[in-house]
Amino acid sequence: MVTCTEGGGERRSVPLASLPPSLLPPVVITWPVSRGRRRRFPGFPPGPPRSFRALLLLLRRPGRMALVLRLVLRGRCRVPAPAASLYLALRPAEPPPWPGLRPPVCQFSANANSKKPLSALVSKVKYLNEKYERFLERTFPRFYQLYSTFLKGFRIFFTEMKEIRRIKANMSYRKIQFHQLPYREMERLRQFRRDLIKAIPVGILSLPPFANYLVLLLMYLFPRQLLIRHFWTSKQQAEFLDTYHNMRKEAYPEVVDGLMNLSRSLADSQLRKQMLDLCKKVQEGCHPDVRELTAVRTLFVGHPFGIQQLRVQQLKVLSRVLFLTPRLPSLFLRYRLQSHIKELHHLDQAMLKLGVGQLTDEEVQAACYTRGLNSVHLSPLACRLWLAHWLTLSCSLKDAETSLLAHGMVLLSINFPSSKG
C-alpha cells in the first residue's frame, strides 16, 4: 500500500498495483545473501534468477514479487550493488554511443566481416597442406619429389596460361602481329604453342571414364614422351634434352651429305668450289666461319637449296633438325619448315633489338638449344659467344634466304668446341 494526499489534505491508502507507472516511486531491491538475515519480501528466491526461464517463472507469480519485477523491467526501480547481476540482466538497452567513440571493429563493412571465415579457412588449409607435405618428405621421400614436381609444374603452367592470355589480349588491343612482339613475349608464345600441342593428346586420352588412372601411370612410366617441360625435374630436364639432341644430331651428317651432293651439280664454278670446300671442312671436323656461309647465301634463294626446290628426303632431314615430324606429305613439310624458319628469323631480330647482354644465362642456353646447339653442358660464356655468331648470320639474311638458317643450324653447331659427343 502507498499513502497518497488528495486535494483537500486528506490522506488515503491506495494499492500499489493500482497506481499508474508515472506515479510509482523507486523501489530498492536487496537480495538476501545470508541465511540468518530476514528477507524483506517473502517469497523471494535465495539469489537472483540464473536463467531466462527462471525469470519468466518469477514474472508470472502473483503478488508483490511479480509487481516489483515488472517495475524493474519498466525502469522504475533502483537496484543497488547486491543485486547487480539482476540489474545487468533486466536493465533496458543503452543507446548506441557516438560514432566517433565506437571501437574500430564497428567501422568495418559487412564484406570485411564476411571475409574473416574465408581467410581463416584458407589459412587452415595452407597449414594442413604444409603439414601433409612435411609428412610426405619425411616418410616417402621419392614420392614427395614427384608430388612437389607435379605441384610446381601445375603452378608454373597456370601462371604461363595467364601470361599468354595477357599477351593475346595485348596483341588484340594494339592490333599487332606475332613478329612485332618483344623477344620474351614472342619466345613465351612460341614455346607455349609447342607445349600445348604435346599436352592436347594426353588430355584427350584422359577423357573416358577411369582412363585418367591409366594416363597417370603412363606419364609416370614415360615422362619424356607425355609430360611437358614444366613437370620435369632438373635431372630429368638435362637428361631429356640430351636425348632429344642426340636424336636430331643423327640427322646432321645427312644434311651435310645432301649439301655436298647438290653442290656438285652447280653451274657456277666459283660457288661450286666455295660450297664444296665448306662441306668438306665441316666433314673434317672444323668449325666454319660466318663469312664462309654468307659468301654462298645466293644459293639458298632458289635452285638448288631453296625451301621450295629441296628434295623430299632433304625436307624430312631438316624437319628432324627442327623437331618436326617428317611423316607428312611434301606440301605440308615445306609449309611447316618455312613457317618455323621464319618464326626463328623473327625471334633473332627481336633478340638483336633487345641485346644478348639483357638475357639471363638460362634464356641464352635455351636460345642456343632451339637453334641446334647442345647447350646443356656448355658454360654461359660459350653459349653467348655462339649466339653472337648466330645473330651475325641470321640478321644479315633476307626473308627469301631463310633456307640458309635451317642449314646453318647444322653447319654452325656440329663442330662447335665443347659441344661434340
Automatic annotation (TrEMBL):
Record-linked Pfam families: LETM1_RBD
Bilayer disposition of the protein: Single-pass membrane protein
Gene Ontology MF: a single term: ribosome binding
Signal peptide: none
Residue ranges of the TM segments: 196-222
Domain (Letm1 RBD) ranges: 239-421
Subcellular location: Mitochondrion inner membrane
Cellular component GO terms, alphabetical: mitochondrial inner membrane
InterPro entries cross-referenced by the UniProt entry: LETM1-like_RBD (IPR033122), LETM1/MDM38-like (IPR044202)
GO biological process per UniProt: intracellular monoatomic cation homeostasis
Keywords: Membrane, Mitochondrion, Mitochondrion inner membrane, Transmembrane, Transmembrane helix
Protein name: Domain-containing 1 isoform X2
Organism: Podarcis lilfordi (Lilford's wall lizard)
Classification of source organism: Eukaryota, Metazoa, Chordata, Craniata, Vertebrata
